[in-house]
Write a structure and sequence with these properties.
Layout lengths: L1 H68 L5 H14 L8 E8 L2 H15 L13 E9 L3 H6 L8 H13 L3 E2 L3 E2 L10 E10 L6 E10 H9 L7 E7 L7 E4 L14 E7 L2 E9 L10 H73 L3 H25 L4 E2 H13 L8 E2 L4 E2 L1 H20 L9 E9 L7 E9 L6 H8 L4 H13 L3 E7 L2 E9 L11
Parallel strand pairs: 12-14
Antiparallel strand pairs: 1-2, 1-6, 3-5, 4-5, 5-6, 7-8, 7-10, 9-10, 11-13, 14-15, 15-17, 16-17
C-alpha cells in the first residue's frame, strides 16, 4: 500500500518542505519590512517631536525676553523680536507668538485691556466674549500681525473651558502646558481647523504676581503636514488622538488612503508628549508605500517547490511503472515457462499413452487374430481409427463437436469395427469449443486407461456408456456422463490402482478440464472388476453457443 502511495508521499513531503521554506522566507522578509517600517514610523515621530520642541523653544525664547527686560514689551519691540525669530526658526504649524493679560473680571480691567490693545495695534476692541468667570486672559499681543491674528485680539481665553484648564495647569505648575483640541479663533468660518495652545505664565520677580501668559496657538493639520512632508517624504498614513484612541479624541488624520499593497499591513502605535499632554499615533503605510524587500522571491520559492515536488512525484511514478512493467514481464515469463512445462508434460503423457495404446491394441489384436493377415488387417484398422480421431479434432480446431461423434471416434481405437454405436445411449449434445476440448481429453484418458488396465484388455470385458440431461439437479440443469467398465475376472491391485489413476498426471488432467474449465465434477469409484466414472457439468457451460471467457 505504501509503495502505491510513494509518489503522493514524495509530492507531499517535498511540497511541505518547500512551503515551509517559502513561509520562512516570507516571515523573514515580512519582519525585515516591519522593522524598516518601524524605523520609518520612529522617524516620523522624531520629526514631529522636533517640530513641537522647536516651537516650544520659541515660547521659551519669548519668556526669556520678558524676564530680561523685566516688563512686558510694547508692540513694536515685540514685533521686531518675533520677526527676528521668524528669520532663524521655521514657523510652519505655529500661528504666532502672543501674550494674554491675566486680570480680574470687571469694568476697570476691561478698560485697561482695551486701552492696551488700542495702544499696541491702534484697534478699538474690548475683551470678548462675555464671561461669568472671576478672571480674564485677554490677548493683547500677537505676532506676526496677520489679518487672522488681528481677529484674535481681545479674545478672553479664560472663558473657554479647554483653554482655561491648560492656563490653570501652567499657573499651578509654573511650566509649559498644552491645551486640548480647540477651534482657533484666528480661523475663518468657512474653513475652520482644529488646533491647540501652549501656555507658560509670566510672573514678576519682585511681587510673584502673574501678569499674564506667553502662549502660542498651533494649527494641528499644519503642524503635522510641516513635520511629515519634509524631504524625503515618508510613505506613511497617520491618525492621531489627544489621549486614548477614540473618535471624540481624534485630532488628525492623513489625507489619502492607506496602502492596499499585499504585505503592507504594518501598524505602529506610538506616543508623544506635548507639554504635559500625551498624544497617541497610529502609523500605517500610505498608498505610495513600497516594501523595501519584495515578497516575489517567496512566491517564486513556493512555485519552484511545487514544480520540484511535481517533477519528483512524476519521476517516482515513472520508476514505479518501470518496476511494475518489469514485474509483470517477470510474471508473464514465469507463467509462459509454467505453461511450457505443462505442455511438455502433457505431450509426454500423450506420447506415453499413445505408445501404451498401440502396445495394448497390438496385444489385444494378436489374441483375437488367427493369422498374421488377420492381425495386420485388424491392427491397421485400429491405427486408422486412432488417426481419424486425431484428425477430427485437428480439422475442427476444437471449435465444436457432437458428443456422440467425438466419443465414437475415440472408442473405435478400442473396438475397431466391432463398436456398436447404438449402445452409446444419450441425447444429441453439441459441445462448444471449451467443452469439446475437455471431453475429448476425458474420453482419451478413459479409453487409454481401459485399454491399458481395464475392461478393454480382454474380449470378455464390458463397457457401458451413457449420458443424460439432468433437470432436477439442485445446482441447475446439468449434463451427466457415465462410464462403467466391468471385467469377468477380478483385476489385480496394481491394475486397479492404475485404473483409478491415483495421483497420476491423467487424474490431474481430468480434474483440470472438468472442475476448473467447465466448473463441473468428476467422481471415480473403482472396484475389483472395473471402475465407475461419473462426470457432471453445468449444461450451460457445454452448449455450443456458450463461450468461456
Amino acid at each position: 500500500m505504501l509503495y502505491r502511495l510513494q509518489p503522493a508521499l514524495v509530492f507531499i513531503v517535498v511540497a511541505l518542505v518547500g512551503m515551509l521554506t517559502a513561509a520562512a522566507s516570507w516571515y523573514t522578509i515580512d519582519q525585515t519590512n516591519r522593522m524598516s517600517f518601524a524605523s520609518t514610523a520612529e522617524e516620523a515621530v522624531r520629526r514631529l517631536s522636533d517640530r513641537i520642541e522647536n516651537h516650544m523653544l520659541l515660547i521659551k525664547a519669548t519668556e526669556a525676553l520678558f524676564e530680561a527686560t523685566g516688563e512686558i514689551p510694547d508692540a513694536q519691540e515685540f514685533k521686531a523680536f518675533v520677526g527676528n525669530l521668524q528669520k532663524t526658526e521655521q514657523f510652519d504649524g505655529v500661528q504666532g507668538i502672543g501674550f494674554a493679560r491675566y486680570a480680574p473680571t470687571g469694568p476697570e480691567s476691561e478698560a485697561a485691556i482695551a486701552a492696551e490693545i488700542e495702544r499696541n495695534y491702534d484697534i478699538q476692541r474690548t475683551p470678548w466674549p462675555e464671561t461669568e468667570e472671576k478672571y480674564r486672559t485677554a490677548i493683547v499681543l500677537l505676532e506676526p500681525s496677520t489679518e487672522a491674528n488681528l481677529r484674535a485680539l481681545g479674545y478672553d481665553m479664560y472663558s473657554n473651558s479647554v483653554r482655561r484648564t491648560a492656563i490653570l495647569a501652567a499657573l499651578a505648575e509654573q511650566r509649559l502646558r498644552a491645551s486640548g483640541s480647540v477651534r482657533l479663533v484666528q480661523e475663518n468660518q468657512t474653513d475652520p481647523q482644529s488646533g491647540f495652545l501652549i501656555y507658560t505664565p509670566y510672573v514678576t520677580a519682585d511681587t510673584n504676581i502673574p501678569l499674564g501668559f506667553i502662549y502660542a496657538p498651533f494649527s494641528i493639520p499644519n503642524l503635522f503636514k510641516s513635520a511629515l512632508k519634509r524631504l524625503p517624504v515618508l510613505p506613511i498614513h497617520v491618525t492621531a488622538w489627544d489621549g486614548e484612541p477614540a473618535d471624540s479624541n481624534q485630532i488628525f488624520r492623513s489625507s489619502g488612503e492607506r496602502s492596499s499593497h499585499f504585505g503592507a499591513s504594518h501598524v505602529e502605535m506610538m506616543s508623544i508628549e506635548v507639554a504635559g499632554r500625551l498624544w497617541k499615533l497610529e502609523i500605517r503605510p500610505s498608498e505610495i508605500y513600497e516594501p523595501p524587500v519584495d515578497q516575489t522571491r517567496s512566491f517564486m520559492l513556493a512555485a519552484a517547490a511545487l514544480l520540484l515536488a511535481g517533477a519528483l512525484a512524476a519521476s517516482s511514478r515513472s520508476q514505479q511503472r518501470t518496476i511494475e512493467v518489469g514485474e509483470a514481464l517477470r510474471q508473464e515469463t514465469e507463467r509462459a515457462l509454467t505453461d511450457r512445462e505443462f505442455l511438455l508434460q502433457e505431450m509426454k503423457h500423450r506420447i506415453k499413452n499413445m505408445i501404451a495404446r498401440m502396445l495394448a491394441m497390438s496385444r489385444q489384436t494378436a489374441r483375437a487374430s488367427e493369422t498374421l493377415d488377420d492381425f495386420t488387417q485388424s491392427f491397421t484398422a485400429r491405427l486408422q481409427a486412432m488417426a481419424a480421431s486425431q484428425d477430427l479434432l485437428a480439422r475442427t480446431a476444437w471449435q465444436s463437436a457432437d458428443l456422440r461423434t467425438l466419443l465414437a471416434q475415440e472408442l473405435r481405437q478400442l473396438f475397431g469395427d466391432k463398436l456398436e454405436e447404438e449402445k452409446l445411449v444419450g441425447p444429441t449434445v453439441e459441445l462448444n469449443e471449451v467443452a469439446a476440448q475437455a471431453f475429448g481429453l476425458a474420453f482419451h484418458e478413459l479409453a487409454t486407461n481401459a485399454l491399458k488396465y481395464g475392461s478393454a484388455r480382454s474380449d470378455t470385458g464390458k463397457l457401458d456408456i451413457s449420458w443424460r440431461i439432468d433437470t432436477a439437479s439442485p445446482t441447475g440443469k446439468e449434463l451427466v456422463f457415465t462410464w462403467r467398465e466391468r471385467s469377468e475376472v477380478p483385476l489385480d491391485q496394481q491394475d486397479s490402482d492404475a485404473l483409478a489413476q491415483k495421483g497420476g498426471f491423467g487424474t490431474k488432467l481430468l480434474d483440470a478440464t472438468m472442475r476448473v474449465e467447465l466448473g463441473g465434477s468428476i467422481t471415480t469409484i473403482p472396484n475389483q472388476h472395473g471402475i465407475d466414472v461419473t462426470i457432471r457439468v453445468p449444461h450451460a457451460r457445454v452448449m455450443s453457443d456458450h463461450r468461456n471467457s
